[in-house]
Design goal:
Number of strands of chain A: 0
Helix content of chain A: 55-70%
Number of domains of chain A: 2
Shape of chain B: elongated
Largest sheet of chain A: none
Number of helices of chain B: 10
CATH topology of the largest domain in chain A: Rna Polymerase Sigma Factor, Chain: A
Strand content of chain B: under 5%
Order of helices and strands of chain B: HHHHHHHHHH
Structural class of chain A: mainly alpha
Distance between the termini of chain B: 58 Å
Mean pLDDT of chain A: 79
CATH architecture of the largest domain in chain A: Orthogonal Bundle
Mean pLDDT of chain B: 68
Largest interface: A-B, 52 and 52 residues
CATH class of the largest domain in chain A: Mainly Alpha
Order of helices and strands of chain A: HHHHHHHHHH
Oligomer: heterodimer
Distance between the termini of chain A: 37 Å
Largest sheet of chain B: none
Shape of chain A: elongated
Number of domains of chain B: 2
């Protein structure tokens, strides 16, 4: 599935929204223009400003082991696609959607490689050979990583990144009802890993 | 604990339940301690998710990215002139460069032709209309000498517009800082190119390199001057 247009989501965590009307927006606009004209220094500033968000997204959506590789891929693609950025959305939103596209394209391969499947609601309980005490000691972020693929993707996109069910359904190729169901199962599974 | 309403608690939290269902669920919650506990836990999960911090990668990924996209990963990111000359000489002959330069100029000179054949305009808006390719209507070799006075005038005009934007507060300090750094970098590249041209004035590559660098400066100034009125 190819998704290239910037998401229309009002992201809770969108740094561009947080700074709208503030000091860094114009500076970033200038850097985007410079980077589009081939200025590596300006692109490095964009990288520094957004790498934590992109890397965290990759870490949560797929796997910490491949987050570095995906992050590199996202920024390499962003560099090559800067000429197509028209400024309709904030750069951070555009980059975030590009990152999701890269992640979703990668997940198919990784899912096949892992070949894992867990019942959604009991995913974190059903891992064989793990003592209950150890399970309960899972860090919240680690627990997110242990969710089944679908539930994890929906949870990250909805509760962490702030997308709506309709947008998530469009990205993942599912219906909004499935997105709601996956989200609920993910939340139910994560209740035991709040501390 | 798992009743019919448990499955609807997330929708209740997200405010996506229909009014009638919402009322029915609230009535159920009043008498079901287990559902109230689950609801509280789910709300804490949502709050926890929203509070997650973004963390950068453990290792700096920029050097690998810079290598892949072909830019310098050092502190000073303008690739040295000697390095660029070496790189390009491997890939292109001088006639190829001249042909490529001519193509670039053709592509970029449509707007410039129109601009040059209009009555003179003044102000930042006029500069923005004129565009970065203004004046680039001749062969790259010797272009700099032929057009430097008009280039200098355009740069001075744009810098004046920028200064006005800064002084009036329409450009914030962070933007001014970034622009200043970028201009210093570009000016440094222009100085390098001029020095090299002084030693080798007939070089098609050096002329093109200088023209490209000056064009970048014009483009940056044009975009920056366009930012100032956009903030009013």
């Amino acid at each position: 599935m190819e998704l290239t247009s910037p998401g229309a989501a009002t992201l809770r965590r969108d740094p561009d929204q947080a700074t709208s009307g503030g000091g860094t927006g114009d500076a970033e606009t200038a850097d985007v223009a410079l980077a589009a004209s081939g200025d590596g220094s300006a692109f490095e500033r964009l990288y520094r400003a957004h790498v934590a968000r992109v890397h965290s997204l990759a870490r949560r959506m797929i796997n910490p082991d491949v987050a570095d590789d995906i992050t590199q891929d996202v920024f390499v693609r962003a560099w090559s696609k800067l000429g197509t950025f028209r400024g309709e959305a904030a750069f951070g939103t555009w980059l975030h959607r590009l990152a999701i596209n890269v992640i979703l394209a990668r997940r198919t391969t990784l899912s096949t490689e892992r070949g894992r499947y867990h019942d959604a609601e009991h995913a974190l309980d059903a891992v064989p050979g793990r003592p209950v005490v150890h399970e309960l000691s899972l860090d919240f972020q680690q627990a997110i990583g242990r969710l089944p693929d679908g539930a994890r993707e929906v949870f990250v996109l909805h509760d962490v990144e702030g997308y709506k069910h309709e947008e998530i359904a469009d990205m993942l190729g599912i219906v909004p009802g499935t997105s709601k169901s996956q989200l609920h199962h993910a939340r139910m599974a994560l209740r035991k890993h709040l501390e | 604990m798992n009743d019919t309403w448990t499955e609807r608690l997330s929708e209740y939290i997200d405010g996506t339940l229909a009014e009638a269902e919402r009322g029915a669920l609230e009535a159920h919650l009043a008498g079901c301690a287990a559902c109230r506990t689950t609801l509280d836990e789910l709300r804490r999960v949502v709050a926890r998710a929203r509070a997650l911090d973004d963390r950068p990668p453990a290792a700096d990924l920029w050097p690998a990215i810079a290598e892949q996209i072909g830019v310098s990963s050092g502190a000073h990111h303008v690739v040295s002139l000697a390095e660029r000359r070496t790189r390009r000489r491997v890939a292109f002959t001088v006639p190829q460069l001249a042909a490529a330069a001519a193509l670039l100029l053709l592509l970029g000179s449509g707007g410039a032709y129109l601009a040059l054949h209009r009555p003179p305009l003044t102000g930042a808006g006029a500069i923005a209309q004129r565009g970065p390719a203004a004046d680039l209507t001749t062969s790259p070799v010797g272009w700099v000498q032929k057009t430097s006075s008009r280039y200098d005038a355009a740069v001075a005009e744009l810098e004046g517009a920028l200064e006005q934007g800064r002084a009036s507060g329409r450009l914030d300090s962070a933007t001014v800082r970034v622009l200043t750094q970028s201009l210093v970098t570009i000016d440094s590249a222009i100085v390098q190119a001029r020095r090299a041209l002084a030693a080798d004035p007939g070089s098609a590559y050096l002329n093109q390199h200088l023209a490209d660098t000056m064009r970048r400066k014009l483009e940056l100034l044009r975009r920056a001057s366009a930012l100032a009125p956009a903030r009013t």
